[in-house]
């Protein structure tokens, strides 16, 4: 790969980018010409406002370091506070590559930082895509591979079924780097299934790893465990091993469906910002939500003090990274392009492309950031456990004061997670999520953010998810298509894909998701069926609301809904409202072939929603019995619903009301 080269991820179209005029804003352009180009770009953005986002990462020409700048020729520490470091060649490390000190500027200068770039190997046929080839199944007489599109999706086309008590053993793979973190990992498809993951050395002896964290000692290999709800990974944590050949064995403690059984380098970073070392890398620690960062770079094993050559960043500071590429050399597990273990840093990421792959691969995980003109390509086919919403491509974990703009996010699981209480802006970005893990929306959001002029065009999955308050979401564009079943929701169940979801899972009034404003957005919502899983019921929605007592305000949005497969288990709605008490839906314009509002639905009952002065336009291909509103489902009712002053085009007021549950509404 050439420095700064941009390639589209296979299978992902980037029409918003191809529509952009080529604007080489960097390198040798005279000011007037630059101004003209900026004017043209501004006009372009104005004309296409709400339909496309400028995505402005661009390659950088190499330059020579200037006076006072420090050249970087290899991996290591950029430790002089306040200095500017400039790469003069590509930098590569088989583990983490560069560690930056306080207030450092790191100019990648058009070069690439490679991390996890050792001569690592996969366990042969780790994903069972070649059936049982390369696996010793002599202790697993019932072992067989099954099809993900018929049984349960996970990774690829094949998964492995084992019966309780059976055990499989891989062929040997070489772990080329000694004394570092590896995870012997096993994908487990539901939380009811339990496995024991072990590793043998090249003489066939079991590897025993015990890790001491201060006074506490834990056995980390072998490791027995379940996943949490939704499936994920159980792993044995390997450290302090010599290089050599190792193999993985998995014992089924229950009947199991398994996939992606491998030994991988873990916990690397392309660019590290080190406060304390966080050594808690074991599976038990993950389930306890203990943080992990740079355990291979502690002064003493299991300690929290960094090695003496690592710059320790303390106190508030700003670290700037610009003009180049960061990418991993091998698909590992739980690794990041840029990672910080201190909460006090702000990262400025300017014109950087980050390319990452692997399980729980992340491009950026830092407390807060200013991100502009960046591009994130993340190939994470699954994550370790789906309840961690911050396990996604770009995660800002304490994000107040952050701004994310003019950047492109490709891949999953989830593009951007922003944990915030206020003072956050996210604008003019393109989000192309590939969500196969539940609730890993394109953008996961806390409170107090302004989100505008972004384009959400998921390849798979949903747009924005928030359980917070006081967000202002406006002038964004969404193109949403109902997703096929995921590992957690496959057979005999509903699963909803939505442009925006406001939810607090029915918490008491004033404690969850309320006072958000969703307005002047454009949404195109397509519902469709997927017949491959028995009675799977895909639902597509524009705005999905399942908040307890919180009142949110949804107004002046323009939504088109098309349910392509009428008379199947597929459903769609512009507004999909449940578990809520109140909420105001005003002055929206909906063109649809199915009821625009479904209030009280398979997710739960609803009450006291106000539906005011909306315009409902019956699409030409709507069925003859079309009604603009639908209330209730066979289990759940809808009461206190107020329809006020709504307008109807090609139809008239009408409610598709569920029989057998309480339905109460007024219309005036
Ligand atoms: Ca597979």
Task: Name a few traits of the molecule.
mainly beta; 668 residues; binds calcium ion; 3 helices; disordered N terminus; 31-stranded parallel β-sheet; single chain; 15-stranded parallel β-sheet; Jelly Rolls
Q: What Rg, in angstroms, do the CA atoms define?
A: 26 Å
- Briefly note the CATH topology name of the domain at 135-265: Jelly Rolls
| CATH architecture tag of the domain at 135-265 | Sandwich
What's the number of extended β-strand segments? 61
Largest sheet geometry: 31 strands, parallel
* CATH C-level class of the domain at 135-265: Mainly Beta
* CATH superfamily label of the domain at 135-265: Galactose-binding domain-like
Q: Percent of residues in helical segments?
A: under 10%
Bound small-molecule species: calcium ion
Shape: globular
Structural class: mainly beta
How many H/I helical runs? 3
Mean pLDDT value:
92
Distance between the termini: 64 Å
Which stretches of 5+ consecutive residues score pLDDT under 50? 1-39, 41-53
How large is the share of residues in beta strands?
35-45%
Helices and strands in order, then pairings?
Layout: H1 15-18, H2 31-47, E1 70-72, E2 76-78, E3 84-87, E4 91-92, E5 98-100, E6 105-107, E7 112-115, E8 135-139, E9 144-147, E10 158-162, E11 167-170, E12 173-175, E13 182-188, E14 194-200, E15 209-213, E16 216-221, E17 223-226, E18 232-238, E19 244-252, E20 256-265, E21 269-273, E22 278-279, H3 283-287, E23 292-293, E24 317-328, E25 332-333, E26 336-340, E27 345-359, E28 362-366, E29 368-372, E30 375-379, E31 394-396, E32 403-405, E33 408-412, E34 416-418, E35 424-427, E36 430-433, E37 443-445, E38 449-452, E39 455-456, E40 464-466, E41 472-474, E42 477-481, E43 493-503, E44 517-519, E45 522-527, E46 536-546, E47 553-555, E48 558-563, E49 571-578, E50 580-581, E51 584-586, E52 589-592, E53 597-599, E54 606-607, E55 610-612, E56 615-618, E57 629-631, E58 638-644, E59 647-649, E60 655-657, E61 663-667
Parallel strand pairs: 1-3, 2-5, 3-6, 4-7, 5-21, 6-24, 7-24, 21-26, 24-27, 25-27, 26-28, 27-29, 27-30, 28-31, 29-32, 30-33, 31-34, 32-35, 33-36, 34-37, 35-38, 36-39, 37-40, 38-41, 39-42, 40-43, 41-44, 42-45, 43-46, 44-47, 45-48, 46-49, 47-51, 48-52, 49-53, 50-54, 51-55, 52-56, 53-57, 54-58, ...
Antiparallel strand pairs: 8-11, 9-10, 10-20, 11-19, 12-19, 13-18, 13-20, 14-17, 14-19, 15-16, 22-23
The protein binds calcium ion.
The site of calcium ion (CA) has 8 residues, from strand 10.
